[in-house]
Specification:
Elements lengths: L2 E5 L2 E4 L4 E8 L7 E7 L6 E7 L5 E3 L7 E5 L5 E6 L8 E8 L16 E2 L3 E6 L1
Parallel strand pairs: 2-11
Antiparallel strand pairs: 1-3, 3-8, 4-5, 4-9, 5-6, 7-8, 9-10, 9-11
């Protein structure tokens, strides 16, 4: 069974760092586009970053540029999200998602094209 599993969430103080992992089970990412999304209580799910595992192209939402880094793991079934200088407004459940569809840059941070989703990992940033 193909699955996406996130890990690495936790409680961190403002200004701290966390590294999230997204592991594919039952398949390899190959030409997959993997996105990281987050959803805070009472808010819509929003795209944070996306990487195409084939060509390595990357997209970030403006509010995390310079603080977050998405990367591929050595193994073909891993993608990471390094989050530095975390802020309290970053408190949310973080999800990884994937799609084999070719996406335009503008679509990479939309939830619509992504058909595969993990269960999420909670990130809490205290002030």
């Amino acid at each position: 069974e193909a699955r996406l599993v996130e890990s690495g969430g936790g409680l961190v103080q403002s200004g701290g760092s966390l590294r999230l992992s997204c592991e594919a089970s039952g398949f390899a990412f190959d030409d997959y586009t993997v996105g990281w999304f987050r959803q805070a209580p009472g808010k819509e799910r929003e795209g944070v970053s996306s990487i195409n595992h084939g060509d390595g192209s990357i997209v970030y939402r403006d509010s995390v540029k310079g603080r977050f880094t998405i990367s591929k793991g050595t193994a073909k079934n891993l993608v990471y999200l390094q989050m530095n200088s975390l802020k309290p407004e970053g408190t949310a459940t973080y999800y990884c998602a994937g799609t084999y569809e070719p996406l335009t840059t503008s679509a990479r941070l939309s939830t619509v094209p992504y058909g595969y989703w993990g269960q999420g990992t909670q990130v809490t940033v205290s002030s």
